[in-house]
């Protein structure tokens, strides 16, 4: 069964999707890149839980089952610094027969490779191999997996051609962690089943599975005078084009209820706010006085913060749910752009030139208190605050290009989390406050990469041919 985006359900998890973007710096002044955001999508999700046999463990969460969750949680959302622990997971050979058996096994392994705290054990490291006589814990000899120093064992049993049961066990004590059943009606459903299973596995370990239920939007070049909004899974796949209009569509951002995508749009005559309604498939292009629209960002209540011209330099305004100007959020004599708001809607970070060079500032929208966030460097842009309100990531211009830095709001500690070659910009937090997507030229042209709040290896996102920039996160609706 395939379920589509349902307007009667709210998104499972929302954080901050989309901020604005950066200044460019000719002759000591800022030339504002006209940025904004857009895209929502009809995602088809193909995984459906199947009933479990009476004698098998029922699908359920046992968050403390592996005995690892407190340690992993501490590292997952720890202050700026490396995440040291890795969960060693071995995937047993799937049992039963199905045309989709190998494809699902490979898809789950591919997904798990994106988790920095996960290490998939090479089957050759397991004495006796990973082919089991049963997928049920009481019938499994765990000793071979203990010898190979494995933490968790993943088993899969195909009940028939279109039904699979998947379970995870803690190896040391042979303890059941969780199990789930899925229907796989056709080959197109395999990817969705793998995503949902990995989301549940991630939830069992750390309490959050948002990553595998997310999508990334980005702006892809369609030529020298055209770019459109595309969406793709962060692990690759389901790449699709959302807009196809003349000019440049940039800086996509999702509304919290999943209905709207707004984006900045630039054509030969004007700058505007693009608004796409997923329910009606209606596209609007809204103009504002001053002809400047930079970096929209949805607030938790589905209103929009965006930089607009107020007759001088751009200031940050709040738009109501009909996308009409409601009030001023931040205004100064300087350039104030690129808003990003935490999940509470109270704290907003943005880039401002009020000290001469661009720096990152944060304003408490309840009290009006404003503080400077970026402590070092002379050119800091592209801020994004984590949904949980603990970190701010931004791009800093270095001698060899831009690099991504993370500022811990609890400790004031600041750390570089991306490294060359090329230039890294436009960091965006995922809904889980852990993963970060960013734009990089490290492979020559602009592409989207993933890292985490702790840094680590940057993994490319497969966005197909053409340059891709301005990543923004949204959640797949079930």
What is this structure, in a nutshell?
The protein is mainly beta. It has helices at 69-76, 101-112, 143-147, 190-206; strands at residues 48-49, 87-91, 118-120, 152-160, 163-170, 175-183, 214-223, 226-232, 240-241, 247-254, 260-266, 271-277, 282-286, 293-298, 304-309, 314-319, 325-330, 336-341, 347-355, 357-364, 370-372, 380-385, 391-398, 401-408, 414-416, 424-429, 435-440, 447-452, 455-460, 468-475.
Describe the structure.
9% of the residues lie in helices and 40% in strands. It contains 4 helices and 30 strands. It is globular and about 75 Å long. The chain folds into 2 domains: 277 residues, Neuraminidase (6 Propeller); 163 residues, TolB, N-terminal domain (Rossmann fold), CATH 3.40.50.10070. Strands 7, 8, 9, 10, 11, 12, 13 and 30 form an 8-stranded mixed β-sheet that branches. A 6-stranded mixed β-sheet has the order 1-6-5-4-2-3, covered by helices on one side. The chain has a 4-stranded antiparallel β-sheet with strand order 14-15-16-17, with no helix packed on it. The protein starts with 47 loop residues before the first strand and ends with a strand. Helix 2 crosses helix 4. By secondary structure, it is mostly beta strands. Strand 16 and strand 17 form a beta hairpin.
Write the layout of secondary structure elements.
Elements: E1 48-49, H1 69-76, E2 87-91, H2 101-112, E3 118-120, H3 143-147, E4 152-160, E5 163-170, E6 175-183, H4 190-206, E7 214-223, E8 226-232, E9 240-241, E10 247-254, E11 260-266, E12 271-277, E13 282-286, E14 293-298, E15 304-309, E16 314-319, E17 325-330, E18 336-341, E19 347-355, E20 357-364, E21 370-372, E22 380-385, E23 391-398, E24 401-408, E25 414-416, E26 424-429, E27 435-440, E28 447-452, E29 455-460, E30 468-475
Parallel strand pairs: 2-3, 2-4, 8-10
Antiparallel strand pairs: 1-6, 4-5, 5-6, 7-8, 7-30, 8-9, 10-11, 11-12, 12-13, 14-15, 15-16, 16-17, 18-19, 19-20, 20-21, 22-23, 23-24, 24-25, 26-27, 27-28, 28-29
Helix pairs in contact: 2-4
């Amino acid at each position: 069964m395939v379920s589509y985006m349902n307007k009667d359900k709210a998104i499972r998890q929302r954080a901050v999707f989309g901020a604005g973007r950066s200044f460019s710096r000719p002759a000591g002044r800022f030339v504002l890149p006209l940025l904004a955001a857009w895209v929502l999508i009809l995602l088809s999700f193909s995984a459906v839980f199947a009933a479990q046999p009476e004698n098998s463990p029922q699908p359920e969460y046992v968050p403390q089952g592996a005995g690892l969750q407190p340690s992993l949680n501490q590292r997952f959302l720890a202050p700026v610094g490396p995440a040291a622990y890795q969960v060693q997971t071995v995937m047993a050979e799937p049992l039963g027969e199905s045309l989709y058996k190998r494809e699902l096994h490979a898809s789950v392994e591919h997904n798990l490779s994106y988790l920095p705290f996960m290490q998939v054990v090479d089957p050759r490291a397991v004495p006796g191999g990973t082919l089991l006589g049963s997928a049920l814990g009481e019938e499994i000899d765990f000793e071979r997996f203990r010898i190979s120093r494995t933490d968790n064992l993943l088993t899969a049993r195909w009940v028939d051609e279109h039904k699979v049961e998947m379970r995870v066990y803690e190896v040391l004590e042979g303890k059941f962690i969780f199990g789930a059943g899925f229907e796989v009606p056709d080959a197109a459903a395999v990817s969705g089943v793998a995503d949902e299973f990995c989301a549940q596995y991630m939830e069992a370990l750390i309490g959050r599975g948002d990553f595998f239920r997310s999508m990334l939007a980005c702006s892809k070049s369609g030529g020298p005078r055209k770019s459109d909004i595309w969406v793709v899974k962060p692990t690759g796949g389901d790449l699709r084009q959302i807009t196809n209009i003349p000019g440049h569509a940039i800086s996509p951002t999702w509304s919290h209820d999943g209905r709207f995508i707004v984006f900045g749009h630039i054509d030969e005559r004007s700058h505007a706010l693009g608004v796409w309604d997923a329910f009606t498939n209606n596209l609007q292009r809204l103009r504002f006085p001053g002809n400047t629209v930079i970096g929209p960002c949805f607030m938790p209540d589905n209103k929009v913060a965006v930089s607009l011209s107020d007759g001088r330099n751009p200031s940050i305004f709040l738009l109501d749910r009909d996308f009409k100007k409601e009030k001023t959020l931040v205004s100064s004599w300087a350039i104030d752009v690129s808003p990003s708001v935490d999940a509470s809607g109270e704290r907003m970070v943005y880039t401002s030139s009020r000290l001469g060079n661009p720096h990152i500032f944060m304003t408490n929208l309840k009290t009006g208190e404003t503080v400077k966030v970026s402590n070092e460097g002379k050119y800091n842009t592209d801020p994004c605050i984590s949904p949980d309100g603990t970190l701010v990531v931004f791009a800093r211009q270095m001698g060899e290009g831009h690099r991504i830095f993370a500022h811990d709001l609890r400790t004031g500690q600041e750390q570089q989390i991306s490294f060359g070659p090329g230039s890294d910009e436009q960091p965006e937090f995922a809904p889980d406050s852990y993963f970060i997507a960013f734009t990089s030229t490290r492979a020559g042209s602009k592409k989207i990469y993933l890292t985490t709040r702790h840094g680590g290896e940057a993994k490319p996102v497969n966005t197909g041919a053409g340059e891709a920039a301005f990543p923004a996160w949204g959640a797949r609706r079930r």
